[in-house]
From TrEMBL:
Pfam family, one: MRP-S32
A Gene Ontology term for the protein's cellular component: mitochondrial large ribosomal subunit
Official protein name in the record: Large ribosomal subunit protein mL42
Subcellular location: Mitochondrion
Record keywords, A-Z: Mitochondrion, Ribonucleoprotein, Ribosomal protein, Transit peptide
Transmembrane segments: none
Family: Belongs to the mitochondrion-specific ribosomal protein mL42 family.
Gene that this polypeptide is encoded by: MRPL42
Entry-linked PANTHER family: LARGE RIBOSOMAL SUBUNIT PROTEIN ML42, MITOCHONDRIAL 39S RIBOSOMAL PROTEIN L42
UniProt keyword annotation of Methyltransferase present: no
Length: 146
């Protein structure tokens, strides 16, 4: 049944598009034998969904209904929560600090000026720090654009 529905689905969708755009009447006999209300599942059996196909009363639209099935509470597991007393990485700040304290990140000096200039296609002078003379000359309150 699953293989026959897979073969018929493209033609059903094509007939639906022809009926919608070219006003060609959809032949009920051509579609109903394959697309009548049925249960079709290409999903695994343990998947939490049941698919049902049906035609509307005017036989111009194919409807797919796939509600998720209810899972009994007895079959669920609680979300594991770490112990706040023994967990060192409780907050985001602590996670970042513990990561920065790792030895490989402490000894990392970053990219060199040559690597940065090759990466961004600029000159080496762009990556040197700006001196105090240039910082003093910069206007702290530049005029706003219109």
């Amino acid at each position: 049944m699953a293989a026959s529905l897979r073969a018929v689905w493209p033609s059903c969708l094509w007939m639906r598009s022809v009926a919608a755009y070219k006003q060609v009447p959809l032949r009920i006999g051509a579609v109903c034998h394959a697309c009548h209300k049925s249960t079709y599942s290409a999903l695994p059996e343990d998947y939490n969904c049941k698919v049902e196909l049906a035609l509307t009363s005017d036989s111009k639209t194919i409807v797919c209904y796939h509600p998720s099935l209810e899972i009994p509470y007895e079959h669920t597991k609680p979300v594991p929560r770490p112990d706040p007393l023994n967990n060192k990485e409780e907050t985001l700040d602590q996670m970042l600090k513990s990561r920065l304290n790792e030895e490989k990140l402490q000894n990392d000096r970053g990219l060199t000026i040559e690597e940065l200039s090759k990466m961004f296609y600029t000159t080496k002078h762009r990556w040197y720090p700006v001196g105090q003379y240039q910082r003093r000359r910069k206007n702290p309150n530049p005029p706003k654009d219109r």
